[in-house]
Amino acid sequence: MKKISISDEYIKLDQFLKLADCVSTGGMAKALLQEEAVAVNNEPEQRRGRKLYPGDIVEVRDCGTFQVASK
């Protein structure tokens, strides 16, 4: 599991997917979420605007598992 550090209180899921290098654009993030290829804390997630906080676990099919960490 890779840790991805954020400097703010939270990060939106679509921005996190770009930060983790799973997608390169917001449109790709939207498509990935529509395919139900993302889970947050073991729950399927389709909302691009889902707020992620330090400690959250994000699983992305064909990309890996990540933990949100604070700086």
From TrEMBL:
Keyword RNA-binding: yes
Keyword Coiled coil: no
InterPro entries: RNA-bd_S4-rel_YaaA, S4_RNA-bd_sf
Coiled-coil regions listed in the entry: none
Family annotation (Gene3D superfamilies): RNA-binding S4 domain
Domain of life: Bacteria
Pfam families in UniProt: S4_2 (PF13275)
Keywords: RNA-binding
Entries under PROSITE patterns matching the protein: S4
NCBIfam families: YaaA_near_RecF (TIGR02988)
Name of the featured protein: S4 domain-containing protein YaaA
Species of origin: Paenibacillus motobuensis
